[in-house]
Give the backbone structure.
Amino acid sequence: MKIPNPEALKASSVPAKKKRLYKSLFFQILIAVVAGVLIGHFWPDLGSQLRPLGDGFIKLIKMIIAPLIFLVIVTGISAVGDVKAVGRVGVKALVYFTAATLFALVFGLIVGNIVQPGAGLNIDPSTLSQADLDAKTGSAESKDAASFILDVIPASVIGAFASNSLLQVLFFSVFFGAAIVVIGRQRCMPVISLMETVLELIFKIMSWIMKVAPIGAFGAMAFIIGQYGLGTLSTYAKLIAACYGAAIIFIGLLFLVAWSFARVPLWHFLKYTREEFLLALGTASTEAVMPRIMTKLTNAGCSRATTGLVVPTGYSFNLDGAAIYLSISLLFLAQAFGHNLDLGQQLAALGVLLLTSKGMAGVPGSSFLALSATAAALGIFPVAGVALLLGADRLMDSMRVVVNLLGNCVATFIVSKWEGQFDRSVMLRAFKGEITNHDSAIMLGKEEDFEGQELQRLSEGQDPSPKFRGGPHPGEIPQFQMSKAARSDARTPE
């Protein structure tokens, strides 16, 4: 194999020239969000009619999420080649998710006790209407733990993909990837090659969809402001301030956790993923950015298999923002009806919320169902009282989405580090813009620019990237196979 000139390799790693501001996706989404706020505020009727723009964009993203998760997990597991390692990742992820959710719930209770957002409202229970709450939750029902676990197992593979059930798709994907490992990578190479090619196609489709992201953000924001209005802010000012204040502090704690356990400078990560976070903020949907965020996490040195397992699972099991909102809202409702929960009642509520917040993942009106189940279990205020949150709930989406998304990103870094599948040097290069490919190059390990980056490591006397960041070792890949003499030549400066 021909080894490129070290100077040429050095030049190839220089960040590309910055494109003009108006061509930046971040700038386009920012303008779209601001325009949506203005349209929704000054022309609310028009803003309310723009919802299809946001819904259409989110449906486009959902169209590729199920096949993306399947392909990423299967190719990642087959590359790792160790079923036990996959099991370890799953267990470690669930341990982290449980600890993070429990901490978020406790943190929300602490903030709610300090701020007292519902104190002094003195709501009359006779004025409440159960119909309003039923209209929000629809026909959804609370599930017990057994039902939730059984629902993870798909009745059919096609049904799991058709319904876009992420946990069911993930469940089948793990089995499929494990089967490839057991049968043997070499024997299954035609299937793996086909999947990697299809994954490249999925990323190309994703790049096309992202071109209309500003339109989706504009429509979604115009609808939110037009439908609910900025006047709602004054009505629920104390509750909203408590939730957003708690979210800001919690994000600060995530900064400390990410740096302490994985040495990840989260501020640089936020700059690196600013387009994805702004889009999630504008559309009030974490699913809208799942494909891009998975790619960037892998580009930033996380194992491909770990990213494929942790991120989709975290979308159901690691909802830190939702946990903060649930615990603060519970205290808000109790205080609004003139009740101050004692320590025993709050601990009981904590246990119920820990279960219901998991069992309601992906269910419409899930926060209302979780709060309704908790209210029924405590028996302190009427279940219909949860309807008091209808006016403020939609305005909390931005807080929940950002914290949920950032929490899952931190979880991916920590689990990757915990499993020994995290390359910090690659992360730092990605943050500096030296790794600029945003589609399939890093995840598939096929593109020429990644080949150049790997060869540069060799030419500088460094070892290859560990485990190909979740894929096969570079020495196992044809384009990186070379003799020891060739590697020695590559390390010798001209």
Notes: Residues 33-431 form a domain with the Proton glutamate symport protein fold (CATH 1.10.3860.10). Residues 25 and 250 are 28 Å apart (CA to CA). The chain has two domains: 33-431, 445-491.
